[in-house]
Design goal:
Layout (H helix, E strand, L loop, with lengths): L4 E6 L5 E6 L5 E6 L11 H4 L11 H19 L1
Antiparallel strand pairs: 1-2, 2-3
Length: 78
């Protein structure tokens, strides 16, 4: 079983992208034009939208993405 992976980077226009890879190796990318410092307040339905990360399928995925998002967005904003 593969591990969960979440990464964020700036695209060539300076916008922030994220990628979530689940334990089956399925990846989804999402564009954030103005990302908040945290997504702790969002419910599971927000993360599963087609334009976010529809492969966030359970509470474990949701907690992982929220934790990683918070850490990585701070690094990108530097």
């Amino acid at each position: 079983m593969a591990r969960l992976k979440f990464e964020m980077w700036k695209d060539r226009d300076g916008n922030i992208m994220s990628r979530f890879t689940d334990e089956k190796g399925h990846s989804t990318d999402s564009y954030w034009s103005s990302p908040p410092e945290s997504i702790d307040h969002v419910g599971p339905e927000y993360l599963r939208y087609n334009y976010r990360h529809p492969n966030v399928r359970n509470a474990r995925h949701q907690a992982f993405v929220k934790r990683e998002f918070k850490e990585q967005v701070v690094k990108l904003r530097g």
